[in-house]
Amino acid sequence: MSYTYKDQLLNNQISRTYYFVKRFARIYPLHLVTLYLAVPILLIENGTKTQIFTQPFFANLFLLQSFGPDRSYFFSGNALSWSISDELFFYLCFPVLILAFCRYRWLVSLVLLGACVCIIGLMPFFPGRVTEHTIFYINPFVRLVDFTIGMALFEVFARLKKISFPGLGFATLLECLAILLFIVFFYFHDDIPQVFRYSCYYWAPISIGILVFAFQAGKLSAFLSYPIFIFLGEISFGFYMFHQLVIRYYQQLDADFHITDNVYLAAAIVFFASVILSSVSYFVIEKPANHAILKKVLKPKN
């Protein structure tokens, strides 16, 4: 977000209205499609319409579900869309935060550091998986800290980019070490209380990995720049939004028709079905809807 929009917003190259509509157009059409694709499987799982078309469903429709501290709200409809609810909130906050970073960098940095300390300090005092999950994983106000860490990371990247980066060999080594660091953190994750794993446990390895790969200076970065990986990145939003629905529909079909007992074959079917569906949706739903909304609502500022 900072990489793409910071200069454009601060230099008035685009209006805030254009920015908001563009971000809305990026996420909402697919959210709407997957929400209604969730209705048939919800009817099968729950049995009656009265359990579907209620307040949680409409909260989901307007991407407000993550603000409710109730599982029946934030996991309503296509359950994964709770993160899209958070994401839309972050989009709304972004122009204010980016201006604050520009004008009051040290103050914002201190507030961010204080928020990180508070989150880590408060986590042990909220026992119970439901409470931990609701507050530290779902709540958009708490997860705004994660988003702001990403913005701060861009500020670090922008300053380091002005310095000549080491050669190809050293850059590749840094990329390998960044991946190794994440693997180490993941290997020991069972030894860490779940509440910390909801966010702060992975702050360090994820931040280091993003920062190192952002320079695109090593062989791993070059490998990930092949068109196939770029395309997989482009359809990743669709893959995320569809994959749980694919799993649920597959489970229902398997219960009715007994497709296979082989768990690996089942996983392969679900995976490739999700890839195909997200690929089709990218060209048939996401790109056309995004273009249509931008064309109809507004035009870029010249």
Topology overview:
Blueprint: H1 2-10, H2 16-46, H3 55-61, H4 71-74, H5 82-103, H6 105-122, H7 129-138, H8 140-160, H9 168-187, H10 194-197, H11 203-214, H12 219-224, H13 227-234, H14 236-257, H15 263-297
Helix pairs in contact: 2-5, 2-14, 2-15, 5-6, 5-8, 6-8, 8-11, 9-11, 14-15
Q: What is the compact description of this entry?
A:
This protein has helices at residues 2-10, 16-46, 55-61, 71-74, 82-103, 105-122, 129-138, 140-160, 168-187, 194-197, 203-214, 219-224, 227-234, 236-257, 263-297.
Polypeptide structure, described:
- The protein has 15 helices and no strands.
- Helix 2 (16-46) packs antiparallel against helix 5 (82-103), helix 2 packs antiparallel against helix 15 and helix 8 packs parallel to helix 11 (203-214).
- The protein is globular, with a radius of gyration of 21 Å.
- By secondary structure, the chain is mostly helical.
